[in-house]
Specification:
By secondary structure, the chain is mainly beta. It has two helices and nine strands.
């Protein structure tokens, strides 16, 4: 159990797509936010553009809702011709969306050796928002998927409706904890399962460390 340098945030995102790493024409979404995506949102929140800066941070994610899944058709752009406006660079494809995504993320410094740690920077963002230098809307995944709210929870918060993302070698969810944006050779996955936990401390297997290869 982690108690030092730890905080808990409640996040609400009205519409999101956590595109599956192996999805191609049909843009499927994971049913829950992957740790790598949540980590990216936290970096954006404190204005950090170097994603290597806080490697070693540990996250524990618990769902508060079961998002509804729907499918839309939208225009995707691919590089076929040098002229970016060439019609062959755009084509309609299907994309899955999640609606009503609410979850809790607990953050602890873990093996984050940066000074200050990501946890300390997040605390500062809540205590003194004017001290944060950042840009763009805060989103989870695509830039279109804006975060509606992030709430700092009290240290002793408990909720009996939590569904924890638990590390499980036989779990049905294979999620990225680090994404290689040039190809997929450096992408790291872990297997998880969603499990309802009793009130009390965060399950030890709910903690995931953000690490690059």
């Amino acid at each position: 159990m982690r108690t030092d340098g730890q905080l808990a945030l409640q996040v609400e995102v009205p519409i999101a797509c956590f595109r599956q790493s192996r999805a191609r024409e049909y843009a499927e979404t994971y049913s829950v936010p992957p740790p790598s995506t949540v980590y990216g949102m936290l970096l954006s929140m404190v204005g950090e553009t170097d994603r290597y800066k806080h490697r070693g941070t540990q996250l524990a994610i618990a769902m508060l809702s079961v998002p509804e899944k729907s499918t839309v058709i939208r225009t995707f752009r691919r590089f076929k011709k040098k002229d970016i406006h060439n019609p062959s660079n755009a084509r309609p494809d299907y994309q899955e969306l999640l609606t009503g995504c609410q979850f809790i993320v607990q953050v602890t410094a873990g093996n984050d050796v940066a000074k200050p740690t990501l946890v300390e920077r997040l605390r500062l963002a809540f205590a003194n928002p004017a001290s944060i230098n950042r840009f763009g809307g805060l989103c989870l995944g695509e830039s279109r998927d804006l975060v509606n709210s992030i709430t700092l929870l009290p240290e002793n918060f408990q909720d009996e409706l939590l569904q924890w993302l638990i590390r499980d070698e036989d779990g049905l969810l294979t999620l990225p904890i680090w994404v290689d944006h040039v190809g997929s050779r450096g992408t790291c996955w872990q297997r998880f399962d969603l499990q309802k936990a009793c009130l009390g401390p965060t399950p030890e297997l709910a903690w995931t460390e953000i690490q690059s290869p």
